[in-house]
Amino acid sequence: MRIAIAGGTGTLGRQVADELRSRGHEVRVLSRRSPEYRVDLTTGDGLDEALVGCDVVVDASNNQTSTKDAARTLVEGSRRLLAAEDAAGVRHHVCVSIVGCDQVPMGYFKVKTEQEGVVEAGPVPWTVVRATQFHELMDMVFTKGARWRVLPVPRARLQTVASADAARAVADVAEAAPRRGRVEVTGPETVDARALARRWRSITGRRALLLPLPLPGKAGRALRAGVATSERPDVRGTVPFDDWLRDAVATRSRTSGPGADNGKRGSGDGTP
Ligand SMILES: NC(=O)c1ccc[n+]([C@@H]2O[C@H](COP(=O)([O-])OP(=O)(O)OC[C@H]3O[C@@H](n4cnc5c(N)ncnc54)[C@H](OP(=O)(O)O)[C@@H]3O)[C@@H](O)[C@H]2O)c1
């Protein structure tokens, strides 16, 4: 099949592209800086040309700079993408979303829910793949915090998944017929965000104070209750956070050499 990946240069999208290529499909990578097909979802530039002859479109685009920008890319962008797909005769639109997004009335989650609504009401047969937070995202968030020696973490039940596991699941969906329904993809274990932060600190050896971050209101209650997790997902990734992180740390130290951590490693203890 000829499959276009919007956001095919991102964390998830590039792995979906590699996976589908390895299965023998013709893959087109679409993004603003793609060396192949330059498209901008916020204007529609490049979309018509990029979708000629495509059977399936996977939307793995993203924008988290602000709620407004997220909506421009994901909600308005989905409208533009679907209209161009309809004109090009695309048979299946795969939208990547987030487990429980409709249960968390908060900025980015609300945008993702709205994006799902646009897809479900749109002109192209669809499947929504809802994944839990990627291990990569948690590592990035903790790494950013640790620069200031603090890890501000709310109480939230999470079930993080390796993006490689999620990419294989998205590729499976892209190869199958549209479901007009959802597929849920999670990681192998459910862990409180603060426990995850402690594990991150211990495995990376970074010194950072774990700062309990209050998350008031309905969104906070929902995340504490575990709406971002799924007891019976359609696909359960196999790589636990700790194994993924140990590999990532080993790879980083191989590629960056000594001193890459700027001497900020410590015992990781002495904190709540
Ligand atoms: N990260 C997570 O933990 C997680 C968990 C569950 C679900 N998801 C979902 O998975 C999807 C992918 O997330 P990700 O973390 O892999 O994203 P990412 O790494 O931030 O990649 C975003 C991609 O979107 C492209 N893009 C951004 N703005 C664009 C625009 N205006 N026009 C065209 N392309 C644009 C980027 O390329 P250019 O900059 O070159 O345009 C890039 O290829 C999202 O729908 C997200 O909600 C993510």
From TrEMBL:
Molecular function per GO: protein-containing complex binding
InterPro entries per record: ComplexI_NDUFA9_subunit (IPR051207), NAD(P)-bd_dom (IPR016040), NAD(P)-bd_dom_sf (IPR036291)
Short name of any one Pfam family annotated for the protein: NAD_binding_10
Residue spans of biased composition, Basic and acidic residues class: 262-272
Annotated spans, Disordered: 249-272
Coiled-coil intervals, chain numbering: none
UniProt domain NAD(P)-binding: residue ranges: 7-173
Protein name according to UniProt: NAD-dependent dehydratase
